[in-house]
Amino acid sequence: MTRLIAIAGAAVLAALMGGIWLLTLGGQGDDGFAQCRASVVAGGAGSIGGPFELVDETGATVTDAQVLDEPALVYFGYTYCPDVCPLDLARNVEAVTLLEDRGYRVKPVFISVDPQRDTPEQLAEFTDYLHPRLLGLTGSEAQIKGAAQAYRAFYQVHAPDAGDKDYYLVDHSTFTYLTLPGTGFAEFFRRDDTAAQMVDKVQCFLDAR
């Protein structure tokens, strides 16, 4: 029962954080992609994203330039997430598959906010199950914090369960970020966006490049 309450609380907090983040949105901006989005980030799209250095599923250190070398959908979460992350990532990879059917290639990327448990090996097993091209990234606490701050992604690690020190939850925001080579951050998607809605919006951005 304690775990169920904790899980429910984490889900509510994630939704609240999403709502807080959305309060920073304004109207359409004057840019080449204005016709593709209904809103823009306060401060401009350039205020989201930036350089990062993380560790991929093979244990190799990679940079944002290496990872985001093609259009990508980036999501922050963790493999031990009980409900939200698997559902969001399943939707993201469904969108990637639908885009492939239309002739567009987009890379799905998953950045862990739980470096203690999400080793490269753990990430590889998790991502391979969801999609063969889903790229999992982890790193040191400092590396993950840097990437999260660049994308304004919130996360907070809870204390371990009293009866199981290896069990704990991580609250985190649940946005998916569309990035484009040469442009950087272009758009975000909320949890209630469907795969079909994402596909149409991503295609608009890709056609407008």
UniProtKB/TrEMBL annotation:
InterPro entries in the cross-refs: SCO1/SenC, Thioredoxin-like_sf
Disulfide-bond pairs as recorded: 81-85
SUPFAM superfamilies from the UniProt entry: Thioredoxin-like (SSF52833)
GO molecular function: metal ion binding
Keyword Manganese: no
CDD domains (UniProt xref): SCO
Keywords: Copper, Disulfide bond, Metal-binding
Keyword Transport assigned: no
Binding-site residues, Cu cation: 81, 85, 172
Pfam family, one: SCO1-SenC
Superkingdom of the source species: Bacteria
Family per similarity comment: Belongs to the SCO1/2 family.
Protein name: SCO family protein
Lineage: Bacteria, Pseudomonadati, Pseudomonadota, Alphaproteobacteria, Rhodobacterales
